[in-house]
Amino acid sequence: MNYDAVLADMVAVAREAGALTLRHFARFRDLEIGIKGPADFVSDADRESEQLIRKELFARYPDWSFTGEEFPPVDGTDREHRWLVDPIDGTTNFINGQHYTISIALRRGSATVCGALYNPVSDEMFTAVAGQGAWLNGERLTVSAQADVGLMIVGTGLPTPNLSLYPGSYQRLDAIRAPIGAVRIVGSAANSCAYVAMGRLTGYFEETGFVDTAAGILLVEEAGGIVTDWWGRGPEHYEQTGCLIVANRATHAYLLDKLKDVPMKNAAHRKSVA
Question: What backbone phi and psi angles, to 5 degrees, belong to 182?
Answer without folding.
Answer: -170, 155
